[in-house]
Amino acid sequence: MNAHANANANAHANANANANANANANANAEAGRAGVTTGDPMRSACWFMAFGVALVALPARAGDLAVRTTAGVGMVYVDHTRQSDAPIDTTERGFLPAAAVEAVTSGDLPLFARLRVTAIAGKTDYRVWDPTTDVFRATTTNRWITPELAIGGRLEIEDDIRLVEYVGLAYHYWARSIDAVGAADWQQRWAALAIGTRLEARVARPVDLTIEAALVPSFHAAVRIDSERSAPIDLEPTGKLGARVRVASSWSFTRRLAAGLLAGWEYAAFGESPWAVVRDRNGDPITHPAGPGGVWITMHPAERVHQLWMLATLGFTI
Fold first, then answer.
1. Sign of the C-alpha dihedral computed for residues 7, 12, 14 and 15 taken in this order
2. Measuring CA to CA, which residue among 36, 70, 10 is closest to residue 173?
3. What is the pTM of this model?
4. Which of the two ends of the chain, N or C, has the fewest CB atoms closer than 10 A to its terminal CB?
C-alpha cells in the first residue's frame, strides 16, 4: 500500500513535471522550461480550418446567403486544477489575452454553418499546494488554439427570432511550460463534440442578441510530457462531459458593419490516464524505490478547466 500511495503521488507530480517523494523535489519537478513544439497537431488544425473555410464560403460564393465574419479581442480567465489521491494539488489561474475569429452564415435561409478559431497566449499563476501550505509557486507560459466547425439548421420562430440546432467538432491544442529551470513541458490535445442550441433575436432595429448553450463531451485526449530527466511520456486521459454558454450582442452601424460584446463560460474535464512506465532517453525503465518492482511509473491525474471569456467584437457581413 505504501508503494502504491507513493507512486500515485509521484505520478501526480510527474504529470505536472516530475515525480519525487518530498516537497522540495516536487517543487523542482514543477519548474519547467520553454520550447514546446507544435508539429503535427498544428498541421491537423490548419487542414481542419481550411476545410471549414471552404464549407462556409461555398454558399456565399453561390449567392444563396450572407456570411458574417467577426473578429474579437479581449481577455479570458483560465482556472485549471489537477487533482489526485495524493494530498498535493496543482492549479493554474490567471487572465490571458485572447482573440477569436469566426465566419457564420446569417440571413433567413435554414442552413447554419460556422467556422470559429480561438487563440489564447499568456501567463498564468502556477501553484502546487497541499491542504496547509504552498509547496511551489511560479508562472506558466500558455499557448492554446482551438478551431471549431459547426453545422446545423435555423428555424424562424417568429419575426426577428430564430432558433438554431447544431453539431460541432473542435480540436484543442494547449502547450504550456513553467517559467523556471529543471522540469517539463506539456503538449495537451483533444477533440470535442458540441451539441448546441442557439437563439438569435433582434431586440431593437440596430441591436441583435445571441444566446447559445451546448454540451461538449471531450474524447481522443492525449498528453505529452517532455522533460530533461526522461524520454517523452505519452499519456491518454479519459475525456468527460463539458459544457459552454455564450451571450453575444451587436449594434449594427450599417447594413454590413456591426460592433458588439461577447461573454462566455466554457468547461472541460478529464479523468485519470492509465499508468505508464517512465523511461530514460535510451528507452530503459527508470528505477524508483516506491514503484512496483522498483520501476518508476506515472499517470495523468484527473483535471478540470474553466474559462471565462470577455471579448469586444467587430463584424462585417459579406
1. positive
2. 36
3. 0.78
4. N
Cβ atoms 229, 204 nearer than 8 A: no
Q: Which three cell numbers stand for residue 82?
A: 489537477
pLDDT tens string for the chain (318 positions)? 333 434 443 434 344 434 343 333 333 333 333 333 334 555 555 555 555 555 544 444 444 568 999 999 999 999 999 876 666 788 999 999 999 999 999 877 789 999 999 999 999 999 887 767 777 888 999 999 999 999 999 999 988 899 999 999 999 999 999 887 666 789 999 999 999 999 999 988 899 999 999 999 999 999 999 887 888 999 999 999 999 999 999 999 998 899 999 999 999 999 999 999 998 888 888 888 888 888 888 888 899 999 999 999 999 998
Measured CA to CA, the distance from residue 212 to residue 284 in angstroms comes to: 50
The C-alpha cell at 128 is: 502546487
Q: Are 29 and 19 within 8 A, CB to CB?
A: yes
Grid cell in block for residue 121? 497566449
DSSP 49: H
Q: DSSP for 101-160, please give it.
A: EEEEEESSSSEEEEEEEEEEEEEEEEEEE-SSSEEEEEEEEEEEEEEEEEEEEEEEEETT
Nearest CA-CA partner of 301 in 280, 261, 270:
270
Q: Which three cell numbers stand for residue 84?
A: 489526485
